[in-house]
């Protein structure tokens, strides 16, 4: 149904009031403060000597002001377009289907150019950034633990090294709840690095396979505590090198 003359006058009044309101808002707040330089508001001569985080709040507020200003200016464009359509006689016609827009909708949104059925952006997008496909599962394509044919250094190994230097976990949050050592709270901290069997970590020889030696490291003490070795044999046959005096209790 086409709009009556009375309805058009009412909508025209609403559009003009909305236009004046927007223009006054932009003028009074100087386009949400965008006419003022951030340097003037923060009173800094230069940002070059500061870390971006030092002005985190200011950057957040400036980003918010930009978004508000863009939204307000976009609304002003919609209002001006609706006023032009009134002059040309095309106001109130849906740009998508070409059918008259119901008066109730125009009364609620006088600047709308679409009927309810064809209004854009009605649904919240469920689309996700394509980068997430690469990052899932954790460590992305560089996590090779699940593959039997891969044994090289991968993304998880890289993270273990980084995490071994410290994190915010406590023993209660570690994979090994029995751990009492804050230096071994990272992922798979009990994993053997550089050897398979414990013996390989503390038994050694020279480059020719001679001069068998025993290095008393943590694995050595664990091995002995498990009653898997004989102290008398090592004292009698092998020299002992104290590389690590920390005992395993």
Please give the order of strands in the largest beta sheet: 1-2-3
CATH H level of the largest domain: which superfamily? DksA, coiled-coil domain
Q: Give the name of the CATH architecture of the largest domain.
A: Up-down Bundle
Structural class: mainly alpha
Q: Biggest sheet: strands, sense, closure?
A: 3 strands, mixed
Give the domain tally: 3
From the spread of the alpha carbons, the general shape counts as: elongated
* Quantity of strands, as a count: 3
Low-confidence stretches: 243-249
Reading off the top of the CATH hierarchy, the class of the largest domain is best stated as: Mainly Alpha
Q: Residue share in helices?
A: 40-55%
CATH topology of the largest domain: Four Helix Bundle (Hemerythrin (Met), subunit A)
Q: Could you give the order of the helices and strands?
A: HHHHHHHHEEHHE
Question: What integer value in Å does the Rg equal?
Answer: 36 Å
Number of H- or I-type helical stretches? 10
Structure description:
With 249 residues, this protein is mostly helical. It folds into 3 domains: 5-108, DksA, coiled-coil domain (Four Helix Bundle (Hemerythrin (Met), subunit A)), CATH 1.20.120.910; 134-184, no CATH class; 199-241, no CATH class. Helices cover 43% and strands 3% of the residues. It is built from 10 helices and 3 strands; from the N terminus they run ααααααααββααβ. The chain has helices at 5-28, 30-33, 38-42, 56-88, 103-108, 131-135, 155-164, 199-202, 218-225, 231-237, and strands spanning 203-204, 213-215, 240-241. It has a 3-stranded mixed beta sheet with strand order 1-2-3. α1 (5-28) runs antiparallel to α4. The longest helix has 33 residues, at 56-88. The protein is elongated. The N and C termini lie far apart (88 Å). 7% of the residues are buried. Mean pLDDT is 78; it is low at 243-249.
């Amino acid at each position: 149904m086409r709009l009556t003359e009375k309805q058009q006058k009412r909508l025209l009044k609403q559009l003009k009031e909305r236009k004046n309101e927007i223009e006054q808002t932009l003028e009074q707040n100087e386009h949400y403060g965008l006419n003022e330089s951030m340097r003037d508001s923060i009173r800094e001569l230069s940002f070059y000597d500061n870390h971006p985080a030092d002005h985190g709040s200011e950057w957040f507020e400036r980003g918010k002001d930009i978004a508000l200003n863009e939204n307000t200016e976009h609304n002003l464009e919609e209002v001006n377009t609706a006023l032009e359509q009134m002059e040309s006689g095309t106001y109130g016609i849906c740009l998508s289907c070409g059918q008259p827009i119901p008066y109730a909708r125009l009364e609620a949104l006088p600047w709308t150019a679409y009927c309810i059925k064809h209004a854009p952006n009605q649904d919240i997008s469920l689309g996700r950034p394509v980068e997430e496909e690469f990052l899932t599962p954790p460590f992305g394509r560089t996590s090779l633990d699940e593959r039997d044919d891969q044994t090289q250094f991968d993304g998880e190994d890289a993270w273990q090294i980084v995490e071994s230097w410290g994190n915010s976990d406590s023993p209660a949050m570690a994979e090994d709840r029995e751990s009492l050592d804050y230096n071994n709270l990272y992922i798979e901290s009990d994993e053997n690095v550089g050897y398979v069997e414990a013996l390989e970590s503390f038994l050694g020889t020279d480059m020719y396979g001679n001069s068998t030696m025993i290095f008393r490291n943590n694995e050595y003490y664990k091995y002995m505590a498990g009653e898997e070795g004989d102290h008398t044999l090592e004292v009698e046959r092998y020299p002992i090198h104290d590389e690590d005096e920390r005992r395993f209790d």
